[in-house]
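queue> holo job accepted (flavin mononucleotide)
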Amino acid sequence: MSDPKPADRFEAYRDVPLDESTVSRDPVIQFQKWFADAVESGVDQPEAMHLATSGKEGLPSGRMVLMKEFSSGGIIFFTNYHSRKGREIEDNPNVAVTFFWKELARQVRITGKATKVPGSVSDAYFQTRPMESQVGAIVSPQSDVIQDRKSFDEQFTRELQKYGTSTPVRPGHWGGYSIIPSSYEFWQGRPSRLHDRIRYRFEHDQWVTERLAP
Ligand SMILES: Cc1cc2nc3c(=O)[nH]c(=O)nc-3n(C[C@H](O)[C@H](O)[C@H](O)COP(=O)(O)O)c2cc1C
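queue> job finished
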């Protein structure tokens, strides 16, 4: 017999309930299991996550970023510390993250606090990036208004040539954040929109799970 078609395989996820009695007691392990399912199923960019921040005024803003690490130590992503998100995290470290794996009918929502990772962690990751990305991080005043594309490209090319074969050093305005989660919600799409939602929240030094209405 031939393998099931991807659409059938994905649809099968909707038939499997998400249940308080079968989820891991540890949300990190539960996330890692679902992330592995997404990778194994060939979901495009499963590490792409929506990150919501809000600054002093309490106005929310959202954008996609790429998760580079997920462990009990936190969720790590890299960015420009002077960008809009960086400035907002500076004012208010509370953030919300959402993953959506359409093909598996799964969503994971996480809230937590973001803090900068140690400089040594950012240095190590920066060195793994291609030269163009390193120079881009150096020259781009991310989220600022700039004059036009042409002058930005010229500045980028000048900077790239300046480095030649030498290795750029990570600029202080670029690095990682680690988000320490305080709640998770695992959402499994089910038939007739009667979805399964299991929330974890941290209470008295342990994770408590509870079921939310669809
Ligand atoms: C799939 C995807 C992944 C992205 N990953 C990152 C990332 O890891 N870091 C980053 O700074 N911007 C990333 N971006 C760009 C951001 O969405 C955003 O444009 C940029 O960070 C500026 O956001 P801000 O002005 O809200 O700070 C990504 C965009 C997309 C569509």
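queue> The chain has six helices and nine strands.
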